[in-house]
């Protein structure tokens, strides 16, 4: 199960944010199909398992990324 964003340490929150930014960048460059979890991990500088700690799926990641994007 993915970790809720409101119970993260400062470093975990920063890691989660890097993942969101990476997903947004990849999506902006190539759309939905360009957002591959391995590429997100490499772009964000985290392990693949780290992504799944915060997001249960690609769709969950992209939904959260869109929430962040609309907030900005």
Labels describing this entry:
mainly alpha, about 0% strand
What would you note in describing this structure?
The structure is a single chain. By secondary structure, this protein is an all-alpha fold. It contains 4 helices and no strands. α1 (10-30) crosses α2 and α1 (10-30) crosses α4 (58-71). The model has no long low-confidence stretch (mean pLDDT 91).
Q: Distance N terminus to C terminus?
A: 27 Å
The total of helices stands at 4
Extended strand count = 0
Shape: globular
Which consecutive residue ranges, at least 5 long each, have pLDDT under 50?
none
Broad structural category: mainly alpha
- How would you sum up the major sheet? none
Short description, anyone?
By secondary structure, this protein is mainly α. It has helices at residues 10-30, 37-44, 48-54, 58-71.
Topology:
Blueprint: H1 10-30, H2 37-44, H3 48-54, H4 58-71
Helix pairs in contact: 1-2, 1-4
């Amino acid at each position: 199960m993915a970790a809720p964003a409101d119970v993260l340490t400062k470093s975990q929150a920063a890691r989660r944010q890097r993942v969101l930014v990476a997903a947004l960048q990849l999506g902006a460059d190539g759309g939905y199909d360009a957002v591959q979890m391995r590429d997100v991990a490499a772009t964000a500088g985290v392990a693949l398992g780290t992504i799944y700690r915060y997001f249960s799926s690609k769709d969950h990641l992209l939904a959260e990324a869109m929430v962040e994007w609309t907030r900005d």
